[in-house]
Each structure stands twice: as C-alpha cells, then as structure tokens.
C-alpha cells in the first residue's frame, strides 16, 4: 500500500541480459515523489535500459519495479499500458515527427488516445508551447524548420502536455551549446516543479546534472554503486563517482576501450 514514505519509483534486484551479455545485474534504486534524480554512468553501462525497464519497453529477467508501491511487472498488460498515461518522456534525439506540425507533435499522445479533439489539442499545444517559451506561430511549423534548441523545447512541451506525474529525460542537453543547455535545464526544472512531477534524467553533462538533479545515482557494472546529492558530484568522496564527474582518465573505473 502506498503511504507518504512510499517511493514514487522503487527498483529491487532488477536484472537484464541480452544473450550472454548481462547489462543490469541487480539494480536497486529509490526515487522519492517530487524528486529530481539524475542517473550517471559510462557509455553502455545500462542507463537507458534501466529507464526502459521502468517504462515497460524492456521486460527485466528478474527483480521488482514498483510505482507508487504497485509492482508494475505483475500488472495485467492493459493496466500496465495505462500507467504510461502518467509518464512523460523526452527522448535523446527529440524524436519529433517531421511529417506533423509542431502542435500535433506536442499533443501527439492525447490525440492518439482520442483524449482530446483536434481543436482542443491546438489550444492545448499553444498553452504548453508558451510554457517552454515558444510563440503560437511555432505550432504551425514543421520540426525540421526549427533550430536544435527549439526542437528540444518542443520535445519538452510534448513530454509535459499530458501532465504526467513522472517524466524521464534522456540526455536533454546533448547537442546544444552551453547557454542553450542551461536554458533548457531551467525550463525542465520550471516545468517539473509546476507539475509537481518526479523527474529521472540521464546525462553526461555534469553542469546539467547539478542543475536538474537533487539526487544523483551512479550505475557501474549493472548496479547502482552510489547515490547522493547531485551538488556533491565531483567532490562526493566516492572515488568512482568523482573520477567520472571530473572526467579523469586515472581512477578506479577502467574502461578497456579507452586505454
Ligand atoms: N534491445 C537490446 N538488445 C541488445 N542489446 C541491448 C539492447 N538494448 C541495450 N543493449 C545493450 O545494453 C548495453 C547498455 O545499453 P544502454 O543503452 O542502457 O547504455 P547507456 O548507459 O544508456 O549508454 P549511453 O550513455 O552510451 O547512451 C549496451 O551494451 C547495449 O548494446
């Protein structure tokens, strides 16, 4: 049963292998309701697989994943799918559809599920675009006509349009200049706060991690090896985390491909 102390997301012993390759080897992670959690880890360490397991896009081999205290892996398919209505996602590359105008992209999920008429969707898109600093006229453009920073704003608008209570951000500032990255981070923080949502982000950008995360977790060799305040990244006292956050070649993390 869910109580005030129940984590929004709770993972215990989550394992996932692809063929002989074990990617997740017993992930334990708690994300408190309303918290901003950043997941760090080397390339290929399993950050995206972790998020996809929570989203239900990948089925773990073992373990427990709870949302609001409910074991989602045991839910019937239909109930599991309806959980998706409460979850927003900003994909790494934005994943916008160039064949649709911006406003339809923003309200894509609401339209696809017939939760809203096209006229309502247009109004809703204008309202959400304004929240990410975009003018009404942008709604009629194709995503291909927008700069990278504007595309990220549209992707953010799409992630929040259905007012989810959990939002995942996969490398939200990748490919942006540092100032635009900071602007997008600011918008993310504002939007998440306005919704009162729980946010889980993957990023390799430490400045971004400190801005959008309250808490950080580091994944290494398929397990969460450290959790602590995002503000401590780089001087956490954990040699592995500090090597990673400071981008040092020497340290406990040996990356065969980089030698
Ligand atoms: N559907 C899949 N089938 C087979 N292997 C997969 C699949 N999805 C992920 N993997 C493998 O799992 C490992 C972890 O992938 P994942 O995408 O989670 O890494 P990541 O930590 O997000 O990395 P990056 O920072 O580079 O995006 C990789 O070796 C990847 O090749």
UniProtKB/TrEMBL annotation:
It comes from the Bacteria. Pfam families: ABC_tran. PROSITE patterns: ABC_TRANSPORTER_1, ABC_TRANSPORTER_2. The keyword Cytoplasm does not apply. SUPFAM superfamilies: P-loop containing nucleoside triphosphate hydrolases. One of its GO terms (molecular function) is ATP binding. Keywords: ATP-binding, Nucleotide-binding, Transport. Residues 9-246 form the ABC transporter domain. PANTHER family: PROTEIN TRIGALACTOSYLDIACYLGLYCEROL 3, CHLOROPLASTIC (PTHR43023). This is Phospholipid/cholesterol/gamma-HCH transport system ATP-binding protein. It comes from Belnapia rosea.
């Amino acid at each position: 049963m869910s109580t005030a102390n129940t984590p929004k997301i709770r993972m215990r012993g989550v394992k996932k292998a692809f063929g002989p390759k074990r990617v997740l080897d017993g992930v334990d992670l708690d994300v408190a309701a309303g918290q901003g959690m950043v997941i760090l880890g080397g390339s290929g360490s399993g950050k995206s697989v972790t998020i996809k397991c929570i989203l239900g896009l990948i089925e773990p081999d073992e373990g427990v994943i709870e949302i609001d205290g409910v074991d989602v892996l045991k839910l019937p398919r239909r109930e599991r799918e309806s959980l998706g209505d409460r979850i927003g996602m900003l994909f790494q590359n934005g994943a916008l559809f160039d064949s649709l105008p911006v406003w339809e992209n923003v309200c894509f999920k609401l339209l696809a599920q017939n939760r809203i008429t096209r006229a309502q969707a247009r109004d809703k898109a204008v309202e959400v675009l304004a929240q990410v600093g975009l003018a009404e006229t942008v709604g009629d453009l194709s995503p291909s006509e927008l700069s990278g920073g504007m595309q990220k704003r549209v992707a953010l608008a799409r992630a929040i349009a259905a007012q989810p209570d959990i939002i995942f951000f996969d490398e939200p500032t990748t490919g942006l200049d540092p100032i635009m990255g900071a602007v997008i981070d600011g918008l993310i923080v504002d939007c998440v706060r306005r919704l009162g949502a729980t946010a889980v982000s993957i990023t390799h950008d430490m400045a971004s991690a400190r801005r959008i995360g309250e808490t950080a977790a580091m994944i290494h060799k398929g397990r969460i090896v450290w959790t602590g305040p995002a503000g401590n990244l780089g001087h956490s006292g954990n040699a592995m985390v500090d090597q990673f956050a400071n981008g040092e070649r020497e340290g406990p993390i040996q990356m065969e491909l980089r030698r």
